Amino acid sequence: MYRTQRVYRPIRWLSIRPATVSMKPHAIETPRMGDDSGRKDLRMPDDDEVFAVVTNMLGANRVKVRCMDGKERIARIPGKMQKRIWIREDDVVLVEPWDWQDEKADITWRYDKQEADQLRDEGHIQE
Prior knowledge:
The protein has helices at 79-82, 113-122; strands at residues 50-59, 62-67, 72-76, 92-97, 104-110. By secondary structure, it is α+β, with helices and mostly antiparallel strands. It has a domain at 50-120: CATH 2.40.50.140. It is elongated and about 90 Å long.
């Protein structure tokens, strides 16, 4: 046999096997139409966080927010949220005011529309 000729041997690992068991999780609960009461557990502010509503987009990853403690602050969108979570005007967010400059803050969380409506209904956010 020459070097350039190939030897074809049977491949053992391609033998026919019985059907394998699916590894998909079957215990995932799907919401049912009659089961949900409309209330969802939401992330609430920690000791140093406060609810805020975005009032103006300033550019350069900065927004002006109206906090629920009665102050207007310039909030910074952190790098881990910049391209993943889009923040628009009238969004409800959690901000963490700076210790050394009270007129500035960092955004830590954004609520979607349904969550914001729930917070308004429960009285956490005043317009």
